[in-house]
Task: structure prediction
Amino acid sequence: MTLKRVSPLLERNSETINLNLAPHPWKILKCAETGIVFLENPPGYEALKEDFAWEKTYESEVNKRRADEPIRYKISSFLKDFRLKVLKRNKIKEIAKKEILKIKESNSIELLDVGCANGGALEKIISELPKTYHSKCIPNGIEISAALAKIAREKAKRGKWIHNNAVDGMLEFDNDYFDIVILSSFLEHEIEPVQLLKNTLIKLKSHGSVIIKVPNFASWNRHIRKEKWCGFRHPDHVNYFTPDTLKETALRSGFSKFSMKLLDKQPLSDSMYAVLKKS
Result:
């Protein structure tokens, strides 16, 4: 069963343009009022839990790209491995560590990974912090995939691990609970991005931060590659942000501060990054 979405920024009907960038039956539209690009007819949350769970669609997409463009796939995989293993570049991890180290006077630092998969990312970040932070940093997670949520819960030694969609899962935590919330490669999957960020705002402490990574729809590569762009994942990518529409999403959700440096949105990169502040 698929949904019939309206503009995720306006949360109402608006004039739209069909961009013709998705194969049948999927339809990618652009809201003429706000510029937000979105999938009009995604599967619902129940389908995302099983039929379109991340671990299934990711494997399917990798196999498709490997078969369609084997040489390009090998080059892309080599460059990705080189950045991660040789250069040890993981921008989300580095941003998160900087934000955590800003928190000085606290006995407990609550961290949340939304779309936490098997739950290992936060423990990796914590392990690279000074030892004084190891015990007071508490990892938590929300994961819609039943299989991955089960793995995360079984592996976890501490924290709270929720099997739910992100919008409802966020409400299972107390208000003013989190110091850091990470939305890494997640907001593009969320059917209700504004509502998710509104819920996140309530759960964030006054000094808290939300760290975001999403595909950059404004990248040069997207314009060159068109429907073959690596940022397309049908049908589980349901929002396609530019720097402007990501900022507008944050502001409409109630965040007062939106930080995105030039290197966080440079057009040569298929990804972009932002830090949102409550106050």
Remarks:
- The CA atoms of residues 31 and 135 lie 46 Å apart.
- The longest strand covers residues 204-215.
- The first helix runs from residue 45 to 49.
- The chain has one domain: 16-277.
